[in-house]
Amino acid sequence: MKQIYLIHEHHPRLLLFFAGWGADETPFRDYRPADSDFLLCYDYRTLDFDPSSLDAYTDIRVVGWSMGVWAASQVMARYPLPVSRRIAINGTPFPIDETCGIPPAIYQGTLDGLTDVSLHKFLRRMCADNAAFRAFLQRTPRRPLEELREELAAIARQYASLPPSTRPWDLAVTGSNDRIIPPANQLNAWRRLETPVRETADAHYQEPLFHQYLQDVWTND
Question: What's the rounded mean pLDDT across residues 188-213?
Answer without folding.
Answer: 95
